[in-house]
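Re: calcium ion structure - here you go.
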Amino acid sequence: MGENKKVMKKVLSMILAVLTVSVLLAAAVSAAYYKTIPGNLIKDGDFNSADVADYFWMNPDEGPYRGGTCVWQKDGGAGNSGCIRMNGTDNVSSVPALVPRNLVDGVVDGKNVDAKMWPQVVEGKKYVAMIDVFRPVGVDATVQWDTENGLVAYQRAAKNGEWERIVTIWTANASGNCHLRVVNECLDGGIGLKPDQYVLLDNFYFAEYKEGVNYTEMVNEGTPDTGDNAVVISAVVAAAALSGVCVVAGKKKSR
Ligand SMILES: [Ca+2]
């Protein structure tokens, strides 16, 4: 092989390396996700902890709040964090829902508390609730907010194959318990999750509404700090460094 051919071969392999790095970077950037907003009044609403069932009605043996088809998983959520998988069921009257409970055997954060099982609202105050929903392609189940105390607009998931954030803002028309839930509304004209279907839920958020907060802000860098992604990103950086070395070596040789 002549010197020119060797140089040509090196140049081609460098181009291939650069293209590979570009594709990997593009994939990392496209993994943008919704930003977590501080001030969540719902404990474990980010679903990043395995003890999530302490703060949401998910144990089928405990009834009565319809979270029996919900299962916690340690990844697959926003930025590949922990999330909830809501499974379908052939029990049409089950109405799968995800409902928070502040009360755990009368004790919250080590203190005895009044029986405030539900998030509390005050008449006339403005509140915001949001949930990140992922409906796989082909799943058209009705996923929406549902509550009392003045919530009139039932925002519903509308996308497939990507995460979307459903935000609802309302003014409480009565003080007291807010029966806040994310529900697969399979009655009243809604579409149920079939037994082999699921949706993913993340960032169950409820707080007093604040002007000026961007509740649908995205994390743009698309490089979540999870172990798996750290490995991929390290590989991209290493490949980029390597192709840089190759370019320098190629330039020296071609002189
Ligand atoms: Ca999460």
